[in-house]
Write a structure and sequence with these properties.
The complex is a heterodimer of chains A (593) and B (245). Helix content of chain A is 42%, strand content 13%. By secondary structure, chain A is an alpha/beta fold. Chain A folds into 6 domains: 55 residues, no CATH class; 96 residues, Glutaredoxin; 214 residues, NADH-ubiquinone oxidoreductase 51kDa subunit (Rossmann fold), CATH 3.40.50.11540; 76 residues, Ubiquitin-like (UB roll) (Roll); 85 residues, de novo design (two linked rop proteins), CATH 1.20.1440.230; 27 residues, no CATH class. The longest helix of chain B has 18 residues. The two termini of chain B are 22 Å apart. In chain B, strand 6 and strand 7 form a beta hairpin. The chains are: A alpha/beta (593), B alpha+beta (245). At the A-B interface, helix 4, helix 19, helix 20 and helix 21 of A face helix 2 and strand 8 of B.
């Protein structure tokens, strides 16, 4: 390790403790690991204790104390990629590159692993190379990638075509259709004043688009009332498997999103803003930085914005590093502060005590875009659409078994059936609405409505046809939550792993009726005892499929009343290795004992 | 105390002071709410979730949730005690807890809570994790097999000792206690046997060497009192001490 390079990285970030995660990301990029020997240097310069530097490093999936390859390949393990054959693709990559999944090749050139949803569900199977996305992985494309790697071609020299991602906007609605001239919404906000902007937001009925649905006007108002410096944060950490709308919004509508953040700053009186961009979307960063620069040149960011003396506001981009939990707003704030993404105890809520204890508004990408448009067009323009309780439109990310996966915008209150027709879904068995943390609905529920009062969603909409195995879907999601649990509270830390193991036992054909009861009891307790939304919803895939498809579970059960929670034969493996035996006598009979 | 500053806990009227959590007010009133990661001496953490109570119909951690006038709080109910029992069993199977050979047996709060809740077995399949035991320090043993990730040592070292010897690392079920040294070993930290952090562990994960099994069976902490009685007693003593300060 070159200590000089490390010190340069630290100097680039002024060795700010709040930038610890950003520092670690750069160290990872440069050295392909966070060497243990780097930690004392980082600790010395940032003032963060070594143990905490290690604690942050080992929290995020994209940071590694072990050496990774100069080309680090990740294949998405999300359900939508599974449906498109991601497991076979990973096996092909593994064979082609001569590296086992989860390993680094001996020459340290390449490493391969699985990762959670990469947000390319409409063009999977997808992967990441050194954090840069590569959609539509086929054997042909893998051959090209393997060739580039074996010839040691630098990533910057790879053909741009490999990284090309389509926006796939299939249905434009209110937000996606509306023109938003540069600075127009902000100009209106400054003219009409904060009270009028808040009144328009109130009238619009806009609720948070991340899924929780907290009224936006209320959030801004609560924050504005607080004394001291205010902060605006845009949550672009869309990690819910099956969601990719923010990827498209940031690619095509970033001006509108930044404008919404600036309108918020003008309304609540903030000087500082952050875009927390999920690590999987790092490819978007240069483009977003360029847009921020344009806005600075146009006087829409920086000092005395819009000619109003004293209105100073700027936006900084922070990159995440592979942690679903950072989509939870208080975990996101912890991560922005350079810490482990562990959700805080509430109260206090971020609107009173957020980033560095300052009053903070955290909103979803889509919420800020809508807020900018509402500032310009007024509240009624928005509330004219949707149902009484769910105003306006919702942008959906549709993927899975349908002819036209992509982005669809609908007024709230649309039926599931209409959406299925539009995206070309046939023989649909069920839909995961709102991602793994949402609800799995079956064919007799397609007349239900997409709305906060019926089926709420942050935007994820995954379609499964009749050929899919419901149990395997629940299993994928349950593994996902166990992988993404932050480990803070007992029920989620231990419970999600217990659920995973128990569901594996049933899926592998070792489950009994007692296990099914236990699955339901445990899932319910985790839901009721967990600290944050992750743990409270981690059981949903099991609970919603158990409720709707008990017969599928039952079909997997053994007729005995008890099966041990471990594999008896596997438990003898150590003895077999020690005695050098592997004959029939050294194995238990698995059936008919 | 004004008349408004009361809430209802299992039908009992509990007075509270400004800034109290539900746990503070309940303890002062002599009502035990099971807990492991909480110690009134330190900032509440809210992670073990044993103190889960139902406040106006919603489950909250009593140790972090502020007491407020007219709250209706349920604590000692079958539903909540079943959750607590499950959580305790989870903590047992997550680590490697062998009570009969543990120096902390009889003085261990995890064991004490197990008795309090009527735990008869671990119920869940054991994880048997492989965790590093660190005996490098001349005076203190760190046995991660017994760690329940309550973070009391993290808080004690940071807030009482001003040293930051401990931190939680990893994520999810891979979470583990790490120490502040490049080597990762306790001997290379500035932890001393006089530190608060060396004495705060509710289980047997951090113990001072050469003091094992000092109290014979029959004279240990929880041989004649329950963990509930003991923690209420500790709270009273503690509060008198803080008022003197």
């Amino acid at each position: 390790m070159h200590v000089e390079t490390l010190r340069d990285i630290l100097a680039h970030h002024q060795a700010e403790p709040t930038r610890l995660l950003q520092i670690l990301r750069d160290v990872q990029d440069h050295f392909h690991q966070i060497p243990l020997s780097a930690m004392p240097v980082i600790a010395e310069e940032t003032g963060v204790p070594i143990a905490q530097v290690r604690g942050v490093t080992e929290f995020y999936s994209f940071l590694s104390t072990a050496k990774q390859g100069r080309f680090h390949l990740l294949v998405s393990d999300s359900i939508s990629d599974h449906l498109l054959g991601s497991r076979d693709i990973a096996a092909y990559l593994s064979q082609k590159l001569g590296v086992a999944i989860g390993q680094t090749r001996a020459d340290e050139r390449v490493s391969l692993d699985y990762t959670s949803c990469t947000g390319l569900c409409d063009q999977g199977p997808a992967g990441l190379v050194n954090g840069h996305w590569i959609p539509r992985l086929t054997p042909e494309r893998i051959d090209r990638i393997a060739d580039l790697i074996e010839r040691d071609v630098a990533l910057s020299e790879w053909p741009e075509e490999l990284f090309l991602v389509d926006d796939n906007i299939r249905k434009h609605g209110l937000l996606l259709n509306s023109e938003l001239p540069l600075g127009a919404a902000l100009k209106k906000a400054l003219q009409q004043g904060a009270d009028a902007t808040l009144a328009a937001l109130e009238k619009s009925g806009l609720r948070g688009r991340g899924g929780a649905g907290f009224p936006t006007a209320g959030k801004w108002r609560f924050c504005r009332q607080e004394a001291g410096e205010h902060i605006v944060v845009c949550n672009a950490d869309e990690g819910e498997p099956g969601t990719f709308k923010d990827r498209v919004l940031l690619n095509q509508y970033a001006h509108g999103v930044f404008e919404g953040m600036t309108v918020c700053a003008a309304t609540i009186g903030a000087n500082k803003g952050f875009l927390y961009l999920r690590g999987e979307y790092r490819h978007l960063r240069p483009r977003l930085e360029a847009i921020l620069n344009t806005r600075r040149e146009q006087g829409l960011l920086g000092k005395d914005i819009g000619g109003r003396a004293g209105f100073d506001f700027d936006i900084e981009i922070h990159l995440g590093a592979g942690a679903y939990i950072c989509g939870e707003e208080s975990a996101l704030i912890e991560s922005l502060e350079g810490k482990r993404g562990v959700p805080r105890n509430r109260p206090p809520y971020p609107v009173t005590s957020g980033y560095l204890g300052k009053p903070t508004v955290v909103n979803n990408v889509e919420t800020f875009l809508a807020a900018a448009q509402i500032s310009l067009h007024g509240g009624e323009w928005f509330s004219a659409y949707g149902t009484g309780k769910s105003c306006g439109t919702k942008i959906l990310s549709i993927c899975g078994d349908c002819a036209n996966p992509g982005i669809y915008e609908y007024p709230f209150g649309v039926t599931i059936r209409e959406i299925l027709q539009d995206c070309g879904a046939e023989n649909t068995q069920g839909i995961q609405v709102g991602g793994p943390s949402g609800t799995f609905i079956g064919a007799n529920e397609f007349d239900r409505l997409l709305a906060f009062e019926d089926l709420a969603t942050g935007g994820s909409f995954i379609v499964f046809d009749q050929t899919r195995n419901v149990l395997e879907i629940a299993r994928n999601f349950t593994h996902f939550f166990a992988h993404e649990s932050c480990g803070f509270c007992t029920p989620c830390r231990v419970g999600t792993s217990l659920l995973r193991n128990l569901l594996d036992k049933i899926c592998d054909g070792h489950g009994t009726a007692g296990d099914m009861l236990e699955l339901s009891r445990l899932a319910t307790q985790i839901k009721h005892a967990s600290h944050c939304g992750l743990g409270q919803t981690a059981s949903n895939p099991i609970l919603s499929t158990l409720e709707r498809f008990p017969e599928i579970y039952q079909a997997h059960l053994k007729t005995t009343t008890f099966e041990p929670g471990f594999d008896l034969d596997k438990a003898l493996e150590t003895s077999r290795r020690l005695t050098g035996r592997d004959d029939a006598q050294a194995h238990l009979e698995t059936e008919g004992m | 105390m004004t008349e408004e500053n009361v809430f209802n806990l299992d039908g009992q009227v509990i007075p509270f002071q400004e800034g109290d959590t539900i746990m503070d007010a309940a303890m002062r009133a002599g009502v035990y709410i099971p807990h492991l990661c909480h110690n009134p001496e330190f900032t509440p953490h809210g992670s073990c979730k044993l103190c889960t109570v139902k406040v106006n119909g919603r489950n909250c951690s009593a140790c972090t949730f502020p007491a407020a006038a007219n709250q209706t709080v349920f604590n000692n109910t079958d539903e909540l005690n079943e959750i607590r029992l499950t959580l305790t069993q989870m903590l047992f199977v997550e680590g490697n807890h062998f009570c009969p050979s543990c120096e902390k047996s009889g003085n261990c709060q995890l064991q004490g809570v197990g008795y309090e809740l009527g735990m008869l077995d671990t119920h869940f399949p054991l994880f048997y994790p492989q965790r590093q035991v660190d005996a490098s320090h001349p005076d203190i043993l760190l046995d991660r097999d017994r760690c329940i990730l309550c973070s009391l040592c993290v808080r004690a070292s940071r807030d009482a000792d001003g040293k930051n010897v401990f931190a939680i690392s990893g994520r999810g079920i891979q979470s583990q206690l790490v120490v502040n040294a490049e080597s990762g070993l306790l001997e290379d930290t500035d932890l001393s046997a006089d530190d608060r952090a060396a004495h705060i562990c509710p289980v047997g994960a951090i113990i001072v060497k050469r003091h094992g099994f000092e109290a014979p069976i029959g004279e240990r902490l929880f041989d004649h009192q329950t963990v509930g009685e003991w923690s209420l007693d500790q709270f009273d003593t503690g509060e008198q001490a803080w008022q003197r300060d």
